[in-house]
Amino acid sequence: MGYKIKDHSDRSTAAEPVVALSSKEQLLFFVEEHRGLVWGGILLVLVFIAGLATFNWLSQQKEVESWELQGQAQQLYLDRPLDDAEKGKSNVQEASGMFQDILDQYPGTPSAKVSSFLLGNSLMDGENYQGAIDAYTSFIEEQTQDQIMVGLVQQRLGLAHLLKGNREAAESAFNAVLENTQAFNKDQVLFELAKLAESEEEADEAVNHYKQLIQEFPLSPFSTEANLRVKVLAPEEVEESTESESKLEGDGEHENLEDQEKPSSGESDKQQEKGE
Fold this sequence. Notes:
Distance between the termini: 152 Å
Helix content: over 70%
Radius of gyration: 41 Å
Largest sheet: none
């Protein structure tokens, strides 16, 4: 007896053909389905671009304004009448206030960096030594990436400490310059240390600094003065050095004369043959 297997599949539904969509069509299909999301994203991008452009424009405007103010302050600071001390002092005080305004209103701008240094100088000229020390210290802490400029400010910091009467702090600031591998003013700092030691009647220390200056920076304009100070502070060392050099030169000349007087091997052989 035979059995029939029933086919439960729905024969009425024909197999639908698979249609492959291109990338462009898929993108259009996605945009069509998520129209609100897409337009929202576009709007956010436009807002971001507009905000960035506005920020850059405002930054440029602030930089321009800060440079203008810095130029006015610097001109006021430099153009001081030589025949009117009170007017000059007033100019320095006003310039100090303008430099401080630049630091407060335009922090982080290139002009603020310059103003920070000039603020310390103007405060020092106005005999506000503690204010100058604070300004120089702040500059050193904020501008660690510019070690060349930091070396110059450290020297000014040492002078401010000296004018305030703190020799130990001054020496510390000067030594910081000597430890700064990128500083260009080490010769001047060595000269300042030597003068400081000389003012305290520490002749040996002063001579050591002068000698270091002469040895390490022979082409420095300070080396000429350093040579003169060594001759004044340690004349006996200069005489011994001169005598040693003269002795070496004399020995060298004597050896040259002996070499010239000695006959060569060929000449000595000829002289022996003639004698025979």
